[in-house]
Amino acid sequence: MAAEPLPLDEDIARALAGVTTATLTTVLLKKGLRKVWVRGARALRPGQGRRVGRAFTLRFVPAREDLATPASWGAPISTRAAIEAMPAGCIAVVDAMGVTEAGIFGDILCARMRQRGVAGLVSDGAVRDLAGVLGTGLPVWCGGVAAPPSVAALTFVGWQEPVGCGGVAVFPNDVVVADDDGAVLIPAALLHEVVAAAQEQERLEDWIMGQVEAGVALPGLYPPDAERQAAYAAWVRSQR
Questions:
Q1: Residues 6+ apart with CB under 8 A from 209
Q2: Mean pLDDT of 37-64
Q3: What are phi and psi of 75, to 5 degrees?
Q4: In which domain, by residue range, is 228 found?
Q5: What percent of the chain has pLDDT over 90?
Q6: Which has the closest alpha carbon to 232: 214, 208, 197?
Q7: How confident is the model at residue 2 (pLDDT cuts 50, 70, 90)?
Q8: Are residues 225 and 156 in the same domain?
Q9: pLDDT for the residue 239
């Protein structure tokens, strides 16, 4: 059964908008999660900025000739129907099995997603109609560009169920953060503790960068030893 989309708390979204995906992978690694970076999903246009949202999942399987037809685009289970179910602020995460010889979405579908307030599209597959997709302004992270339509290589089978995208297990309503370094998955159950740890990590690294710019050598600084930890703690107190 398809999961009901959930909203993302505005304070959480705002906090994550200030955290890099690089920091998030470090924080998640410390919690034992290694497969959180979506392999093959690169920013379609560098400088798209950072996007944060709940995952709205879509899934393709290999093309089967009796199902993967242009007529299927008008079926009740179709990418078109899935887009109409997407809530504003979500990030569409599309499992295309890493297939990049057919475009899962083109300019018209991306334009409708943008109109519905979708925050971004992340996929290990490809898009088509590149100029048109870029023209929609929808931030996209994907595996490339291909002219053929999705049915040339894929069959769409549903939405809002667990998927595997770029080697990452993504469940509906997990949280996705995407920037120029790619897209990272935060499990919904770990969201609050990851946000707190990530904000602290960013603050620590800002302080470390200040030390580096002041000429401090890296050993004992990054990572900080006991002396540097004490200096950092004093700096934090001074900022309050």
A1: none
A2: 96
A3: -80, 160
A4: 193-238
A5: 97
A6: 208
A7: confident
A8: no
A9: 86
Tokens representing 35 are 């497969």
Look at the alpha carbons of 195, 197, 198, 203 in this order and tell me if their dihedral is positive or negative. positive
When the pLDDT of each residue in the chain is averaged and rounded to a whole number, the result is 96
Q: Is the dihedral of CA 73, 76, 77, 81 positive or negative?
A: positive
Contact 217, 226 (CB under 8 A): no
Cα separation, 69 vs 29, whole angstroms: 42
- Spatial strand order of the sheet with 126-127 comes to 103-105, 126-127, 144-145
Environment class of 238 (CB within 10 Å of its CB; exposed 0-12, middle 13-18, buried 19+):
exposed
pLDDT exceeds cutoff 90 at 240: no
Would the pLDDT of 1 be above 70?
no
Evaluate whether 152 touches 50 at the Cβ level (below 8 Å).
no
CA atoms within 13 A on the CB side of 159: 21
- Asked if residue 162 and residue 58 are part of one domain, the reply reads yes
| Strand, helix or coil for residue 102 | coil
Res 234 pLDDT > 90: yes
| Position 4 in a domain | no
